[in-house]
Amino acid sequence: MQEATIVRGTYRGQSLEDVKCKMLSPIKVGAKGLYANFNVPGKGAVRIQLPSEDSVLIDKVSLGSKEEEETEDQIIERIKERFDIFRFSVEGVANENIRALIVAGAAGIGKTEAVTQVFEKAKLAQGLEYEIVRGNIVSSYQLYQLLFLNCNEDNVLVLDDCDAILKDINGLNILKAALESGDRPRIISYKSQAVQNLGLPTEFEYKGRMIFITNENFQRVIDKDNSAIGKHMKAIIDRTLYLDLLMHSRREVYCRIKQVTKENGLLDNCEIDSDYYDKILLWIKDHLDSIRSLSLRTPIHIAEMIRTNESNWQRMAGVFLLRQGR
């Protein structure tokens, strides 16, 4: 057993926040999403549903953190290498050399922006047409219909933040077929009367290109979960190009924020003195485990507070960005 704090979770519909307890099992993936077992004061040994892996702190260190012996500079170099490979791969999709790609990493680190930049450049140079669908695909039926409407060779589809479909076995089967990276025909089937009633075929060949952008760490789910979902995820990454950007912990996200701020001018258009850049990064680092939602937007929000009130921006950031009671 490990001493832990449930930062946020749910037990029988009841919200839990900042509950100190003992953790009895690692985080797993179930039918309702992430969960773990805890010995909670007043409740005993219970299962708690968790919205994300960093919803639990163990000994004040967020679950999922990478080896602390890796320096920030080493993490940044690793991230830069991964993003270079990411861009090369997206260019491969744009140039019809790669027909399917999965990209995994924490939310808010610039995955969608990287795809958009490459595709917009290809749109100007070669007339590439593409569609980005964000978070609207929650059922296998919706996924099937969307793929059918984008099944031609010149269709390029980006599914962004559609992780809900990963909890649907039928949806995983459809993704498995659509994300096949080899040369075999990708035949997608959906044996449903509802599909026929709408005039859709129950089977078609998918010839389009697709990028699936996810916050889910497929390999971690596979390693932890031997359920049908875990097995389907393993089948998917065995069949397609799966790129893990290796940014899932808060420390790695912070290093990404630092890199983009220092090297890519993240704050250059925020109309604040550059002397504040290091102060912003230091504030984020000092409050890393307490920030409610950590992403590339975090330093931009802080810059807005600095423009609003230079003398009290830290107080404002504490109220707006930190979890209550921390």
Shape: globular
> Helix count?
11
Q: What is the class of the largest domain in the CATH system?
A: Alpha Beta
Query: What is the mean pLDDT?
Result: 89
> Portion of residues in helices?
25-40%
Number of domains: 3
CATH topology of the largest domain: Rossmann fold
CATH architecture term of the largest domain: 3-Layer(aba) Sandwich
The Rg value, from CA coordinates, equals: 22 Å
Biggest pleated sheet: 7 strands, antiparallel
In terms of DSSP E residues, the strand content is 15-25%
Total strands: the figure is 14
Sheet/helix structural class: alpha/beta
Distance between the termini: 24 Å
SSE string:
EEEEEEEHEHEHEHEHEEHHEHHHH
The CATH homologous superfamily of the largest domain is termed P-loop containing nucleotide triphosphate hydrolases
Give the low-confidence spans: 60-67
Outline the structure in words.
The chain is an alpha/beta fold. It has three domains: 61 residues, no CATH class; 173 residues, 3-Layer(aba) Sandwich (Rossmann fold); 57 residues, no CATH class. 40% of the residues lie in helices and 22% in strands. It is built from eleven helices and 14 strands. Strands 1, 2, 3, 4, 5, 6 and 7 form a seven-stranded antiparallel sheet that branches. Helix 3 runs parallel beside helix 4 and helix 9 crosses helix 10. The two termini are 24 Å apart.
